[in-house]
Amino acid sequence: MPLYLYTIKVYSLYIVLNGVFMPLNFQPKPRSVVYCDFDGYVEPEIVKRRPVVVISAHKRNSKLVAVVPLSTTKPDPIETHHYQLLQNPLPHLPAAEVWAKCDMVAVVSTARLDLIRTGRRLADGRREYVTGKIGAEQFEAIRKAVISGLGLGSLLEAAGGTAALGGAQKGSPADATSGAEKVK
Predict the structure, then answer these.
(1) Which end of the chain has fewer beta carbons closer than 10 Å to its terminal beta carbon, N or C?
(2) CA-to-CA distance for 137 and 176, rounded, in angstroms?
(3) From the CB of residue 112, how many other CB atoms can be counted at a distance below 10 Å?
(4) 122 vs 22, 24, 89, 113, 128, CA distance in Å?
């Protein structure tokens, strides 16, 4: 490994150890919204820190989860593997159009994940964190879009779920249960 790459990796480790990024020591539950650091991936893969929805927890390895990245950039063109959320699941940010990019599903270590910082401090001086949460109906739509993004749409058609493959969908007002939970 060239010296300059080694130096960058040591510098990244230094940042993590100094508290800029606090990796999770637990496996977040499906429907949770957290941040994921995709540092080390190679373009055209995602290569930066971004919010993600946890779509499944690994059954045998408690340090792995499958995630779908979220973006405020509208896809062009909109495909069946894109899903527009009803509201921004990051409560500390202004309302924005948020898209689940379900063709970019990844299995990542919990060491890449971080809770959402609110920017506020608790009475004892510690930072306040929240975990966003996607509503059940929206989560099911994201899962169907993942199936489409993986090229497995025929599985939905065989099960009578053809409506899910008719194009990108938007969350319904009845499913506006997305929110955030405080984490101490």
Answers:
(1) N
(2) 9
(3) 22
(4) 17, 19, 22, 22, 6
pTM above 0.90, yes or no: no
Does residue 165 sit in helix, strand or coil?
helix
CB pairs under 8 A, 24+ apart, for 160-165? 164/80, 165/80
Say which amino acid occupies 84. Q
CATH topology of domain 21-183: SH3 type barrels. (2.30.30)
Token representation of residue 117: 């910082």
- Does the CA dihedral 167-53-29-64 come out positive or negative? positive
Angstrom distance (rounded) from CA 41 to CA 163: 34
Tokens matching residue 111: 């060491």
Query: Tens of pLDDT along the chain (184 residues)?
Result: 443 433 333 333 333 433 456 788 899 999 999 999 999 988 888 889 999 999 999 999 999 999 999 999 999 999 999 999 988 888 777 778 899 999 999 999 999 999 988 888 889 988 888 888 999 999 999 999 999 999 988 876 777 654 444 445 555 433 444 455 555 4
